[in-house]
Design brief:
heterodimer; A: mainly alpha; MetI-like fold; four-stranded antiparallel beta sheet; two-stranded antiparallel sheet; 16 helices; 68% helix; globular; B: alpha/beta; Rossmann fold; eight-stranded mixed beta sheet; 23 helices; 24 strands; 30% helix; 23% strand
Chain lengths: 473, 687
């Protein structure tokens, strides 16, 4: 085998989560009351447009979560594998990750950002901006050719974008045409006049914006460092792409840790009341009064000490990074369940007095059945809304924690680490702005689309907006 | 003829924002003269509240007035700028709403809230405002007005709050008072107080009232003119006398016939099939055609025209369009002359003093009883302070004994807060009784442990008040109905599925509905599902906790008929908890009247209804509004409201409100005295 698959803990959990999401979708398909809010969500143009962007981040994150180690020598049992774990994303973007320059270079530059003493062929030494090893290396005379080349490549990128978008639009139209049994042109007309239940127009528009942004970036990045390079010469575009997985993982895995705690304890407190409620309330009130950052710092520092004293446990750097990431998710989950728990407790307090719960009790239905059949399905919308709302908060929390120094491993690429590094770069003269700017823009895109999506989800699931309870006179 | 106060022409209001606009009000016209009460009557969802809100231009955000005019005196309301409209609201139009609890701002004192209106619309300032507020509170009959002004809404009871609302609405002497279901949330005794107050204020001030209600008995007592609304249109409009003597529209007639008091003890109530149609659709013909027994082909194709039968009576029905307008009531076609008439005008057949003494039913003196409760008490500790010490107990149910025979319906009647629901729940052990014994057949339920009790729960089932809250919205009908059978592990899946079909057809639903979810059903259908669910385990006793009070009159009739039919066929017993005497009269064999946690009088239905002995029962019965004036009783006005069960009065609980209270009543709780066969009263007056 030319490679050995590596399954990191976080990868496994992420795919598990994906699998359960698919399973839920399968389960909900046949149940109209479960499907209804999703159908409503699918009809919201804002929600669908933001979903396109989230989809991009999700795909990048998932690609970056399939890890393997390449074989470097040997056959059969004596195979040797590279010490570095690569991901599918690395394989796709190709040399982007390995083309490292010496140090900073500006976006699309052909020369380094700092002057160096260069020995010329004739032995003379001059202080000048040296050429980059990779960025624009194909140009013989950058001063005269650079502008035209960049322009040409960008236009080629736009061309690629146009083709891609047209293919997408045709595929969508064909799909709609097949579903609705209408002719192709009529489906096209229906899509552009917003006559379809699903706002394809919004989806295609946002996909268009996304492709228009990404395709030129991708084409340019084959010849240039399109977003510049950082202090050790790594391509910033590559780093930003790699950061997406970290942010995504933090947000989803923390939720995975937080959900069972919050759901079980919240429902138990509300349903059983009495001493159960007292204990759970004391626990979360206590936990809430300890600053979260303090707990996280303590936990992460403890882990750091452990990792320092047991280096033999970890085969690769990635495994170290991964454990720390997992631990961070864990501790973020433990510190953030109280809010949802309180919410669920209140809702359960209300639900347990509902007449259908009383009727079930009059039948002598057991507590477990009442909770699983009557209470849990009726608080599901709250859980879902809370999860989507928390997502962006957790992405931002990672950035803040890494900036403070108790976040992910310093060697791991993440938005937080990029911003942390930018602290020094901003102080340079002239300023190195591009790392911070790209981290900022990408994180903003991710959080903004998540927030917009969360809004749409809340609208679709909120019974008050939905009016799926009683109809009003 | 003097200029009418309010003239509404062709008002159409839509609710937009959904998939299709809801044509909630569709071409409503009406005229209200000065000093007149116009009652707008209709079932829920027919657009009566939106009509009122349109007039005051207080529509919800998605409400749009599509067309029409409303003229208040000389002013065209719909042409006014919003700032000018604010001058009209509160000053010329006053409004009171259904729920007094939510219409007052809980963080402002009563005086501030009434004063706000005065400050906005009158030049009064400072002490003058306070003086005016005191006057107003006194006018609405609130004693100790000066002190009340500084109190906050949570310190007031429901009836007082509604009075405060009325005072605020009257602050600037409005010409028109819009009262949207002003008494629906109140008990009968309080309802009687508020209606009397409105009548008195109207006589004093000569204002007009637009009364919105679903209660025909309230209309019969208060209104001058009646407009019946159905699916966004006014379908009949008449003076009160005309309407109650000769209702013209088939819907109005059915509505009157479906009142529980409209049937004899053994008969069935008239039922209007189906439910109010959705108003998102466009109607080609008559909106009532789907549910009408007198439907003709033309009804479906053409909208019936407005026919003025005489100058006091108009109707929207094709059956009258050939009639000569002035001919009035004679224009009624003969073929439905038989349907107006007696059944309609049948009153709530209130006890007539001279009526023959009721013959106690054929029961032997101590018939075998299905359920016997003795000395049932449910006390809730009131805890305060850091360590949750018990500072007092709320005696929700205090020493209640009752007995229900086989295939018998015992009605438990009382005002809200008297503990009747708590009795039901503690019989079922949904609440643990503090003391007392409950025997089901010969088993003492109190001596059973949890496992044994679970097995007995099969025999006791409950149907709740609110069909919207009693069905889990996330479960299909089949799962809902099956729940009890699964809990008791009855039969296998195939048998249960068959049984679900059978139960659904027994309650009048089709078996195809079982894979649907509750939100697809109307209130009446939901209540049928709830009944099917309870019947699934073959209970011997069904506790019905106000099962019809959340339903419209026409639907209530369907459910009551169903319950009666089930009792006859399944020999099932009911404990029917209600505050509505007309329902009691239709369904119950025996009645127990509850006041503040205790039963004050019980006996056979006719004995209690015709010869009420306890002063409270008498007052309660006299407060029930009746349609027929001749049968209306001399009102015994009850002063005040139900005291708190946390601090019940000494002696007889009823003495502070009782006109006949003696010194003894204040000291000693009375003994039970038998006054007739099976008729017992707890009062010092009888010994």
């Amino acid at each position: 085998m030319p490679f050995k698959p590596v399954v990191l803990w976080t990868d496994a959990l992420l795919f598990l989560l994906l699998a359960s999401a698919i399973a839920f979708w399968w389960h909900a398909r046949a149940r109209p009351h479960l499907r209804r809010p999703w159908t409503k969500l699918a009809g919201s143009s804002r929600g669908m447009a933001s979903l396109v962007f989230i989809g991009f981040f999700l795909v990048v994150g998932l690609l970056d979560s399939v890890h393997f180690r390449e074989r470097i020598a040997g056959e059969g049992s004596s195979q040797q594998f590279a010490a570095q774990t690569r991901s599918l994303l690395d394989a796709i973007v190709g040399p982007l990750g390995s083309r490292t320059e010496k140090t900073y270079s500006a976006p699309l530059a052909t020369h380094l950002f700092a002057k160096e003493t260069v020995e010329l062929a004739d032995g003379a030494r001059v202080r000048t901006y040296p050429r980059l090893r990779y960025g624009g290396a194909h140009l013989s005379d950058p001063a005269s050719e650079w502008q035209a080349d960049v322009l040409r490549t960008a236009i080629a990128g736009l061309g690629v974008a146009a083709i891609l978008w047209n293919v997408l639009a045709l595929a969508v139209t064909a799909l709609v045409a097949r579903r609705s049994q209408r002719s192709f042109t009529r489906s096209w007309h229906a899509i552009w006049h917003g006559l379809e239940a699903v706002p394809w127009r919004a989806i295609l528009c946002s996909a268009g914006v996304l492709i228009l942004l990404l395709a030129p970036l991708a084409v340019l990045s084959t010849k240039y460092h399109v977003l510049g390079t950082d202090k050790v010469g790594q391509d910033v575009f590559y780093l930003t792409l790699k950061s997406i997985r970290t942010g995504l993982l933090i947000a989803t895995l923390s939720t995975l840790v937080m959900l069972p705690l919050a759901t079980a304890l919240g429902i138990m407190a509300g349903y059983f009341r009495g001493w159960v409620d007292d204990i759970i309330q004391y626990v979360y009130t206590t936990l809430n009064s300890i600053p979260g950052v303090l707990l996280i710092a303590a936990a992460v520092l403890m882990l750091q000490v452990y990792m320092g004293t047991h280096p033999e446990v970890f085969d690769t750097i990635e495994q170290r990074q991964d454990l720390r990431l997992l631990f961070l998710c864990l501790i973020l989950g433990v510190t953030s369940w109280t809010g949802l728990c309180r919410l669920l407790r209140g809702e359960t307090l209300k639900l347990r007095e509902q007449e259908y719960v009383q009727a079930a009790r009059a039948f002598g239905v057991s507590h477990v059945s009442i909770i699983s059949r009557h209470i849990l399905p009726n608080v599901m919308h709250i859980i879902l809304i809370a999860v989507v709302m928390d997502f962006s908060g957790l992405v931002l929390a990672e950035a803040v924690l890494s900036y403070v120094g108790v976040g992910v491993d310093p060697t791991m690429t993440s938005f937080g680490n990029m911003i942390n590094a930018a602290r020094l770069e901003m102080a340079r003269e002239p300023m190195v702005w591009w790392s911070l700017a790209s981290a900022f823009v990408f994180m903003l895109m991710m959080v903004l689309s998540a927030n917009l999506f969360a809004d749409a989800v809340r609208d679709a699931f909120d019974p008050r907006v939905n009016g799926n309870g009683r109809e009003h006179a | 003829m003097p200029l009418p106060l309010l003239q509404v022409r062709d008002l159409s209001t839509w609710l937009v924002g959904g998939e299709a606009p809801v044509r909630a009000v569709d071409g409503v016209s009406m005229t209200i003269n000065r000093g007149e009460t116009y009652a707008l009557v209709g079932e829920s969802g027919c657009g009566k509240s939106l009509t009122a809100l349109s007039i005051a231009r207080l529509l919800p955000q998605n409400g749009r007035i599509r067309s029409g005019t409303a003229r208040l005196g000389e002013t065209e309301l719909f042409d006014l700028a919003e700032t000018r409209m604010r001058e009209v609201r509160g000053r010329r139009i006053g409004m009171i709403f259904q729920e007094p609890g939510t219409s007052l701002n809980p963080v402002l004192s009563v005086g501030t809230q009434i004063g706000e209106v005065l400050r906005r619309h009158t030049p009064l300032r400072g002490v003058a405002i306070r003086r005016r507020c005191v006057e107003l509170l006194e006018a609405v009959g609130i004693p100790d007005a000066d002190r009340r002004l500084d109190e906050f809404p949570f310190q007031l009871s429901g009836g007082i709050k509604q009075r405060v609302m009325i005072a605020a609405a009257l602050a600037c002497d409005p010409e028109l008072l819009i009262a949207d279901e002003p008494t629906t949330a109140l008990d009968v005794t309080i309802q009687a107080q508020v209606l009397a107050l409105l009548g008195k204020l109207q006589a004093e001030r000569g204002m007009s009232i637009l009364l919105i209600t679903h209660d025909l008995a309230v209309v019969a007592q208060t209104a001058h003119k009646v407009g019946i609304m159905y699916a966004g249109q006014i379908i009949e409009q008449a003076t009160r006398e005309q309407f109650f003597q000769k209702p013209a529209h088939p819907y109005s007639r059915k509505l009157l016939q479906s009142l529980p008091s409209g049937a004899s003890g053994n008969g069935e109530l008239a039922v209007i099939r189906g439910s109010v149609p959705s108003m998102t659709r466009l109607f080609a013909g008559c909106r009532f055609a789907q549910r009408c027994d007198l439907r003709e082909p033309v009804c479906d194709s053409r909208m019936p025209p407005w026919v003025q039968l005489n100058d006091r009576h108009g109707v929207r029905c094709v059956r009258y369009q050939d009639s000569v307008p002035v001919a009035g009531a004679d224009a009624l076609k003969p073929d439905h002359a038989d349907e107006s008439g007696p059944a309609v005008t049948r009153p709530v057949s209130m006890p007539v003093p001279e009526a023959s003494p009721s013959v106690a039913t054929e029961r032997s003196p101590e018939p075998p009883s299905l359920l016997r409760a003795e000395g049932l008490k449910v006390h809730f500790p009131i805890r305060r302070g850091l360590f949750k010490r018990t500072v007092a107990t709320l005696k929700a149910v205090d020493d209640v004994s009752l007995r229900i025979g086989y295939a018998e319906c015992l009605a438990l009647v009382g005002e809200s807060g008297c503990g009747k629901t708590t009795v039901g729940k503690s019989l079922l052990r949904l609440l643990a009784p503090t003391a007392g014994r409950v025997h089901l057949e010969d088993v003492d339920l109190g001596s059973l442990d949890e496992e044994q009790m679970r097995a007995r729960r099969k025999d006791l089932q409950i149907v709740f008040q609110d069909p919207y809250a009693s069905l889990n919205p996330r479960m299909r009908v089949a799962e809902l109905v099956e729940e009890g059978m699964r809990a008791f592990d009855l039969g296998n899946a195939a048998w249960r599925s068959e049984r679900v079909d059978e139960l659904l057809s027994r309650v009048g639903l089709s078996a195809q509905m079982k894979s649907r979810y509750p939100h697809e059903f109307s209130g009446g259908q939901r209540q049928r599902i709830a009944i099917a669910r309870a019947l699934a385990v073959d209970p011997k006793l069904l506790i019905c906790d106000e099962p019809t009070s959340a339903l419209d009159v026409s639907v209530q009739a369907q459910i009551l008929n169903l319950l009666k039919d089930l009792q006859r066929r399944l020999r099932i017993s009911y404990l029917f908890i209600t505050h509505d005497f007309s329902v009691v009269e239709f369904l119950a064999q025996r009645i127990a009247v509850m006041y503040l946690g205790r039963i004050v009088e019980w006996g056979p239905r006719d004995a209690v209804l015709n010869h009420p002995r306890h002063p409270y029962t008498r007052a309660l019965l006299s407060a029930v509004p009746a349609i027929d004036e001749s049968k209306r009783r001399q009102a015994i006005r009850l002063e005040g409201e139900l005291p708190s069960p946390a601090n019940p009065p000494s002696g007889c609980h009823f003495h502070p409100r009782c006109a006949q209270a003696s010194d003894e009543c204040r000291r000693v709780f009375p003994e039970q005295r038998t006054v007739g066969e099976g008729h017992v009263v707890v009062c010092h007056l009888y010994r």
